[in-house]
């Protein structure tokens, strides 16, 4: 009996979330109301608050789910047997792909926070990827693949900056091409130069 009730709750929450996301994409986050979400979901308006605190909570919940999916991919990359530079490449491209597939919703979320600085929510990813990146950079330094004269924190900040600068780029270059070019420049500067 409890399993059926839990499944029903999960389905209702997913239904509300799916309808809300369609409205956010079609009308915009601000112009979407809880009442119209719930009418389209064929549920009472009060039911919304049994599952979510606000419209922003719907968006945050969805993005957190997407980031958790990406985290599993990144952890698998981290544990793979590839070289550290290959792992960094795969991680950046996987994160870039996740962003590109959900770009409009990520941008809505960030715009909401720029307009509502008192909302008190952290970005859904938080410090999620830092530990994975530190491990890979340290591995690359230990194996002599990456330079040791640059502090790990600087390398991580620059690496994360590749994605951030691509996310805010106004160049006509397609997103993933832009990211690949920046990654290539980054890895060339990070590589240990072997003397002939």
Automatic annotation (TrEMBL):
This is Transcriptional regulator, TetR family. It comes from the Bacteria. Residues 10-70 form the HTH tetR-type domain. InterPro entries: DNA-bd_HTH_TetR-type_CS, Homeodomain-like_sf, HTH-type_Tx_Regulator, HTH_TetR, Tet_transcr_reg_TetR-rel_C_sf, Tscrpt_reg_YsiA_C. Keywords: DNA-binding. GO terms for molecular function: DNA binding. Residues 33-52 bind DNA.
